[in-house]
Write a structure and sequence with these properties.
disordered N terminus, 84% helix, mainly alpha, single chain, 23 helices
């Protein structure tokens, strides 16, 4: 049956519902992550006030634990999606994400409970990280298997939703830093975005409870151990896919790191970085679907290769703009350029990864591959960059790190295109 013949009104309606459902989960996941990273300085003041110069490192170390546990979440929840169905897994991941966000929103500070405040936010990050480990892979799998045609386009809405989260979280950062006094921001203002993020959850649960399981999974024999099959039969695809994720994830976390970089190294108001995040988020929202359509025509790997080359070539000039100008305009322009690179690289990524694995292990394959790549190449980046800047004192260090990740992604793309014949 051709793609056109499959595109019945019922299938198109199911695809639209899948886009909404998947986007809500992606929005909550990334909104929580972006808010935490954006308010890292404020969180440090509230939960690690006695740590001195190591306080910010503790905050980002807590942030990094979210990513250390994500591969485990990907293994367990992705395997659950392949065994019990995409719908059940999507509902479970969203419920767990809501618990993690709620803990962060109500966590008592160091002034109230001492070090236990840090323990509570660590627990919230572990729950959020575990649930997020299964969200991307399962939601992307659901989108791809539900879409009757234009699969790259439908999958790209996962990235558009992340752009919406970046826009909304950055807008909150800009507004709260502009309108609140420093005392109010430190006291209660930083909690507001987490409570707002919780409002997304019930809507998502309502929609996900009414989803139908994709037909493609129904016609496949379900493996008793999808994880075992993945590790035995698709190890090379897992490694290549994890490397491919590099430019996408480092671009995201480089943008998220900018408020901290601006405050601690450039003496630029954090509102400038938040404004840049609004610009990058807007580019991602509106650019991702167009890049997805382009990927349907020319192939995702081809677009991603050119975007990775752009990342390698432009990383140094972008950071020269930031470091040399040390201005609001320079920071916003640089973040906007990172946003363009991120959009062209990230939007085709979900579709490419979904093509790398057969349906019976697709949820597990996407979840594990994505989270290994994000953890190793992106999630720990704020911690690594903070440490590197502390040790070297060289403000161009982030650009070198970015270039190294771009090279690794190009290697991964080479194997995807040449060995696995995916364009």
């Amino acid at each position: 049956m051709t793609a056109t013949a499959q595109a019945t009104p019922e299938r198109l309606a199911a695809a639209r519902k899948a886009v909404i459902s998947s986007s809500i989960g992606a929005a909550l996941e990334w909104f929580d992550i972006i808010v935490y990273a954006s308010f890292a300085v404020v969180i440090t003041r509230n939960f690690f006030p006695d740590a001195g110069e190591y306080g910010l490192i503790y905050t980002f170390a807590t942030f990094a634990t979210t990513y250390l546990i994500r591969p485990l979440g990907g293994m367990i929840l992705g395997s659950y999606a392949d065994r019990k169905g995409r719908k059940n897994a999507l509902t479970l991941t969203l419920m767990l994400m809501m618990v993690g966000t709620l803990l962060m929103a109500v966590a008592p500070t160091y002034a109230v409970v001492g070090v236990w405040g840090g323990v509570i936010i660590l627990l919230s990050r572990l729950i959020q990280g575990f649930s997020a480990g299964g969200e991307f892979g399962t939601a992307t799998t659901f989108l791809i298997e539900t879409a009757p045609h234009k699969k790259m386009f439908y999958a790209s809405w996962q990235i558009a939703a992340q752009g919406a989260s970046m826009l909304l979280a950055s807008a909150f950062g800009f507004a709260l830093n502009t309108w609140l006094t420093e005392e109010a921001l430190n006291d209660w203002g930083w909690r507001v975005p987490f409570f707002v993020g919780l409002l997304i959850g019930p809507v998502g649960l309502y929609i996900r409870a009414r989803l139908a399981e994709p037909e493609e999974l129904g016609v496949q024999e379900r493996r008793k151990s999808p994880l075992g099959a993945l590790l035995r039969e698709h190890w090379g695809r897992l490694l290549a896919g994890s490397a491919v994720i590099g430019v996408a994830t480092i671009s995201v976390y480089m943008i998220l790191y900018m408020p901290t970089f601006a405050i601690t190294n450039l003496d630029i108001p954090p509102t400038a970085a938040y404004l840049g995040g609004v610009v990058a988020g807007t580019i991602t929202i509106f650019g991702s679907p167009y890049v997805g359509r382009l990927a349907d025509r020319v192939g995702p790997a081809r677009i991603m290769t050119w975007a990775a080359v752009a990342a390698l070539v432009l990383a140094w000039p972008i950071f020269q703009i930031i470091v040399s100008l040390r201005s609001v305009a320079g920071l916003v322009i640089a973040i906007g350029l990172l946003g363009i690179i991120m959009t062209f690289y990230f939007a085709p990524l979900p579709g490419l990864l979904s093509n790398m694995f057969p349906a019976e292990v697709r949820g597990t394959g996407l979840s594990v591959t994505y989270n290994v790549g994000v953890t190793v190449l992106g999630g720990i980046a704020p911690l690594v960059l903070t440490w590197l800047l502390e040790v070297s004192g060289n403000l161009n260090t982030p650009s070198v790190y970015y270039m190294a990740i771009a090279v690794l992604s190009l290697v991964g793309l080479y194997f995807v295109r040449k060995r696995y014949r995916l364009s």
